[in-house]
Design goal:
Keywords: Membrane, Transmembrane, Transmembrane helix. The termini are far apart. This protein has one domain. It is 82% helix and 0% strand. The longest helix has 27 residues. By secondary structure, it is mainly α.
Length: 93
C-alpha cells in the first residue's frame, strides 16, 4: 500500500507543477497541448493527491472506533479536489 501512496504523491506533484512535461513524456504533439488539456492534467494530479492522502490515513485510522475520523480525511481530500475546479475556472476565465 505504501508504494501506491508514494507513486500517487510523486505523480500528483509532477502533474500539478509541470503538466506540460507530462504531456511531452506521453508523446502528445505540441499542437494538441493547450490550457484546457494542461488543466485536465493538473486535475488528475489533484486526484492522485487524493489517492495519496486517503491511502496514508486509511492505513492507520480506519478501525471500528474511529471511522468518523477517517471519513473526515476523506472529505478533506475531496474538498481539495473540488477547490481545484473552482480555482482553475477562475484562472481560465
Amino acid at each position: 500500500m505504501m508504494l501506491t501512496i508514494v507513486i500517487s504523491a510523486v505523480y500528483g506533484v509532477w502533474a500539478i507543477f509541470a503538466p506540460g512535461s507530462i504531456m511531452s513524456t506521453y508523446g502528445t504533439p505540441e499542437e494538441f497541448v493547450n490550457t484546457v488539456v494542461l488543466n485536465i492534467v493538473m486535475l488528475f494530479g489533484v486526484a492522485a493527491w487524493v489517492v495519496a492522502i486517503l491511502g496514508w490515513h486509511i492505513r492507520s485510522t480506519v478501525t471500528e472506533e474511529n471511522v468518523e475520523k477517517a471519513m473526515s480525511y476523506f472529505a478533506l481530500a475531496w474538498l481539495l479536489y473540488g477547490l481545484h475546479g473552482v480555482i482553475s475556472e477562475r484562472i481560465l476565465t
